[in-house]
């Protein structure tokens, strides 16, 4: 994994909700353990804040000097503070966020953190969401925003909002996927013992995530190995050793957990990689088949036809841009 510094500035406000803060922070921390370049920094106007649950949190700095590659996280706070406008937002925070937006920073708000974005004018003419109990209030308070219900999170350019509480984790996983791909997200979800969820508006595109909504450790081990060695010839006996199961138990566990055999899952991985390689017109169908682990291009063509209802050649022609 290419090491690129990606600062994550977590803005701590009075009455911050602990899970809104801790959940996404844990995702980025786990990603850094997997080699991602995230650097968490907790900042704010005050040197310490008291969470909505009464825990005192220490900030590491004031409002830091911004970098364009940074991501700002705004965890939600106790909702009635915004509902009654009893907790005004410091103008310095508003200016800091506006500067961040102008620089092109990615800004993600969890739950009622969307109200902070609204105060900064960053929801104007943007699709956004918040906790279900505050949807109407957010729209009323910021009439230029396009507030939507019944979604986990929404991204409108560099501004991302989530429905709150545990959905901040989904938002963070989506950002990690943008930065580093699906495989690392699957590993993080496994480490955190999470079921992967997606936005209600976002289709499940990646095979790396599509079959990860289970908790079977042996199947996860086998999936990790297959994903990291897509083109390698791997026997069921080898895969069973990696999963620490017998061949019979491995087949049963795969079917019960993801509805596919190990071979079927490997084929899906290879087809997804092939779909990417087919975008290179310099490679023949035979070369693509060989690169993803098929020794017989005819077998590759049959599998592709069975899965997608078209041929690899037809897929390639469909993807090619039309010249004007």
Overview of this protein structure:
Helix content is 47%, strand content 12%. By secondary structure, the chain is of the alpha/beta class. It has a six-stranded mixed sheet with strand order 2-1-5-6-10-9, sandwiched between helices. Strands 3-4 form a two-stranded antiparallel sheet. It has a two-stranded parallel sheet with strand order 7-8. Helix 1 runs parallel beside helix 6 (167-180), helix 6 packs antiparallel against helix 7 and helix 9 crosses helix 10 (236-243). 39% of the residues are buried.
Overall number of structural domains: 2
CATH topology of the largest domain: Rossmann fold
CATH architecture name of the largest domain: 3-Layer(aba) Sandwich
> Could you spell the SSE succession in H and E letters?
EHEEEEHHEHEHEEEHHHHHHHHHH
Helix percentage range: 40-55%
Rg from alpha-carbon coordinates: 23 Å
Widest sheet, order of strands: 2-1-5-6-10-9
Structural class: alpha/beta
Largest sheet data = 6 strands, mixed
N-to-C span = 38 Å
Given this structure, which CATH class of the largest domain is correct?
Answer: Alpha Beta
Low-confidence stretches: 320-324
- Overall average pLDDT: 89
Beta-strand portion reads: 5-15%
**Structural shape:** elongated
For the secondary structure, the number of strands is 10
Number of alpha- plus pi-helical segments: 15
